[in-house]
Amino acid sequence: MSSVAAIIEQAARLIGEAREIVAFTGAGISTESGLTDFRSPGGLWDRYRIVTYPEFLQSHEARIEYWSMRRELIPSLLEAAPNPAHQVLAELERCGKLQAVITQNIDGLHQEAGSRKVIELHGTNRSAACLSCGKSWPIEEIQWLLEGGNLDPHCDVCDGLIKPETVSFGQSMPADALETAFQLAESCDLLLMIGSSLEVQPAASVPLAACQAGAKLIFINRTETPYDELAELVVRDSAGDFMAAAVSSLLQTRSAPS
Ligand SMILES: [Zn+2]
User: Fold this and answer.
1) Shortest CA distance to 120 belongs to which of 134, 136, 107?
2) Of these residues, 60, 86, 110, 122, which one is catalytic?
3) Which of 15, 39, 47, 141 has the most CB atoms in a 10 Å sphere around its CB?
């Protein structure tokens, strides 16, 4: 058996034996859907200055800067489609194996693939809301305003500031999402980490919390993470190919006559 086949079989066995799986995903799971990691060279953050949350609140000019970056980002997020890695996680949830997906992504691709319990640690780019009255809009409607020349859109009810429902720099993570993420991590018996370099805290501590509570870890990521040595299995392969192969290996084992 090749080493690749052996790793796939090991992953299939760990998934098969687990009773409560939790997935933790980052930008890497969406690169196979054509979305580049904003942090990568040539990514949006190379070309635009990061506008912090306090700046967004205080300055009209900063909001124009912020929205011109978003105007470029939003269409690519809306065009991206889920890939096999998103689909396999949705399938594992449907068959009762997977409790939830905890994600650092704002692209909404897990929900589009059919995942129902998704904890979005950095919020979502699929909608925007008024910071004063809470009215919310699908992001498409805000994109129309931007493209129509409204470079600092305000709420049509109360004139408050509108912002995508993402967590910006200088804005704290939603406490309830973070708390739920840690609770899920501490109660699962297998954490499947896909596509995060585990560098952004406190989210990066979620897999660590799972490990400390006794869960096994599978890491599927192109690059090293600070917690690789804690994982039962570390995979540098394409997440989509690998997850599809592991689940099909699992199904074959189950349907094989004993
Ligand atoms: Zn409002």
Assistant:
1) 107
2) 122
3) 15
